[in-house]
Amino acid sequence: MWACSSVKYMSGKAIILAPSILSADFARLGEEIARVEAAGCELLHIDVMDGHFVPNLTIGADVVKALRGVTALPFDVHLMVEKPEEYIERFAAAGAAYITVHAEAARHLHRVLAQIRACGVKAGAALNPATPWENLRYVAENLDLVLIMTVNPGFGGQEFISAMLPKIAACAEWLRAENPGCLLETDGGINTRTARAAAAAGANILVAGAAVFGQADAAAALRDLRRAARA
Ligand code: DX5
Ligand code: ZN
Q1: What's the pLDDT tens digit per position in 140-179?
Q2: Any catalytic annotation for residue 47?
Q3: Alpha carbon distance 205, 195 (integer Å)
Q4: 225: Cβ–Cβ under 8 A, 6 or more apart, which residues?
Q5: Active-site pick, 47, 50, 76, 144
Q6: If you measure from the C-alpha of residue 142 to the centroid of ligand 2, how many angstroms do you get, rounded to a whole number?
Q7: How far is CA 177 from each of CA 32, 97, 107, 125, 224, rounded to the nearest angstrom?
Q8: Atom of ligand 1 nearest to the CA of 49
Q9: Which residue from 5, 11, 55, 124 has the least number of CB within 10 angstroms?
Q10: Which ligand is nearest to the CA of 53?
């Protein structure tokens, strides 16, 4: 199991940048991950899609397990799958540090969050753009991470939905009161402009696919995003 102690530093106030491998060159995945690790990112975001919850298919636990051997970066596994409870143990064994399930896909969200923690992994809940953050109100203490989707999940390279900014701000305020150790992540359409807005609204982790893997100079891309987020 990937040690949770390795990600403890992430509960601080600094902005964490998490490149999403969805925009990487899948024919050279190991080299691509080495590229962003050398460029100085803190977390690797791994998008798992089942072709049912979202209209796209990506990778499974066996690929995640293989990637565990090529990088020291903690893995932030975003499960865009139906029946996520059937896959938790496999992704935990594959080396996930965080496993995030969609609130819309988990019929028994409280139980799945407990299932993730029982595997020694940090537990996250993701919300589609149309889902209110209030859906998480009664599982506050079961969360290590909340992921607010700023695009409709399924594809990289989409435009940031700015109507999510008040949702990020309201959720951040709620977490500060109810679970200050919980991280708040945004995913989709992050660039220097939207990174600034998301961070100002209260996000701690910014997932970025096209804005990092889509750039020839990943170090410059990360530096620009970090600078924008701090502005
Ligand atoms: C979308 C994924 C995102 C996506 C982000 O379903 O969850 O992680 O890859 O990509 P960009 O940053 O290109 O919008
Ligand atoms: Zn994602």
Answers
A1: 999 999 999 999 999 999 999 999 999 999 999 999 999 9
A2: yes
A3: 10
A4: 17, 190, 191, 192, 195, 206, 208, 211, 212
A5: 47
A6: 20
A7: 39, 25, 26, 18, 31
A8: 6
A9: 5
A10: 1
| Residue pair 193/13 in contact by the 8 Å Cβ criterion | no
Residue 94 and residue 65 in contact, taking contact as beta carbons nearer than 8 Å? yes
14: pLDDT confidence band, cut at 50, 70 and 90?
A: confident
Residue 209 CA to ligand 1 center (angstroms) comes to: 5
Distance CA 4, CA 64 (A): 17
Between CA 28 and CA 12 the distance in angstroms is 33
Integer Cα distance of 204 and 200 in angstroms = 10
Q: How many CA atoms lie within 13 A of 160 on its CB side?
A: 22
> Which pLDDT score, from 0 to 100, does residue 13 have?
61
**Type of residue found at 138:** Y
pTM score, whole prediction: 0.95
C-beta of residue 47 within 8 angstroms of C-beta of residue 80: yes
Closest residue by Cα to residue 95 from 120, 117, 113, 112: 120
Nearest atom within ligand 1 for CA of residue 45: 8
Ligand 1 closest atom vs CA 190 = 12
d(CA 88, CA 230): 34
Q: Say yes or no to pLDDT of 62 above 60.
A: yes
- Compute the distance between CA of residue 104 and CA of residue 144 in angstroms, rounded to an integer: 18
Ligand 1, CB cutoff 6 Å, lining residues: 20, 22-23, 45, 47, 78, 151, 153-154, 156-158, 187-190, 207-211
